[in-house]
Amino acid sequence: MLLVLWKKWLNSSSKKVQASDTGVMPEHLVERIHNGEQELRNELIRQYHPYILKTTSRFFHRYIDPKQDDAYSVALAAFDEAITGFSPEGGRQFLGFAETVINRRLIDFVRQESRHASVVPYSAFELEAEDGGNSINRVEDAQAMEAYNKQRTADDRKAEIAALTEEMALYGITFGDLVEHAPRHQDSRSMLMRMGRRLASEERLFRFLHEKRQLPIKELCEAEAVSRKTAERHRKYLIAISLIAYGTYPFLQEYIGLDHYGKGGTS
């Protein structure tokens, strides 16, 4: 099963990249892999797990559960394929190449799944008339698809909320806390949304949050010209916004209006 790849690569007990390799450009690591350092392959895949997940989520425009969704395993295999096939000719960037390979493999996956779905007989949507006559269509095609899409959307939203609940728990945050600490005025909300978006878009700041479980208060306040007191008062709200902006939560991002706020704190 494709999900075996998830367990193989992310739970691998193989040799890790040395601390001195942290922050090394992926092109350099790929070159080392091509030169025989195969122990770096699994670690490179592990390091770019968030990138692979976000690329897959962006392709499908929905939340992707890496432990249950076969599409993510397809993307993992494509990333591994990209490592093998990458060539830096013409100054090409590895991540751009990897995204192209992932998208191509996901297209193939969708086509394959569609072919499998097409073998479901149309009679599955029919039932016999009570008088023994011709079959009666249970629902029109359009109605069936609409009902399916609505259910899928509802399921995806529930999955996003469940995933965010688990992620926020790592920071000691609940949805109840967000209700309690939510800003009351639109101006305050806009300011905090920009700060949360900035925190998610600047890798150095988000890494500090992720590793320390603390806000990089000083940098954020200086960048947004906001008082330290204000940022600390809305600490939990800021963290939650940054987690949503950074993660694969397309429904929640749309729901809270993150699309109205550009990267780097611009609106």
What does this structure look like?
The chain is mainly alpha-helical and 267 residues long. The chain folds into two domains: 113 residues, Orthogonal Bundle (Rna Polymerase Sigma Factor, Chain: A), CATH 1.10.1740; 99 residues, no CATH class. Helix content is 64%, strand content 1%. The chain contains 14 helices and two strands; from the N terminus they run H-H-H-H-H-H-E-E-H-H-H-H-H-H-H-H. It has a two-stranded antiparallel ribbon. Strand 1 and strand 2 form a beta hairpin. Helix 4 crosses helix 5, helix 4 packs across helix 6 and helix 5 crosses helix 6. The longest helix is centred in the middle third of the chain and has 29 residues. The protein is globular and about 55 Å long. The N terminus and C terminus are likely disordered.
Keywords:
single chain, 267 residues, mainly alpha, Rna Polymerase Sigma Factor, Chain: A, 2 domains, two-stranded antiparallel sheet, 14 helices, 2 strands, 1% strand, globular, disordered N terminus
How many strands, what sense, and barrel or not for the largest sheet? 2 strands, antiparallel
- Share of residues in helices: 55-70%
Structural class of the secondary elements?
mainly alpha
The portion of residues forming beta strands comes to under 5%
According to CATH, what is the class of the largest domain?
Answer: Mainly Alpha
Query: How many domains would you count in the coordinates?
Result: 2
Strand order of the largest sheet: 1-2
Topology-level CATH name of the largest domain = Rna Polymerase Sigma Factor, Chain: A
The CATH architecture of the largest domain can be given as Orthogonal Bundle
The helix-strand sequence is HHHHHHEEHHHHHHHH
Principal-axes geometry comes out as: globular
Query: What is the number of helices?
Result: 14
Indicate the radius of gyration in whole angstroms.
23 Å
Total strands: 2
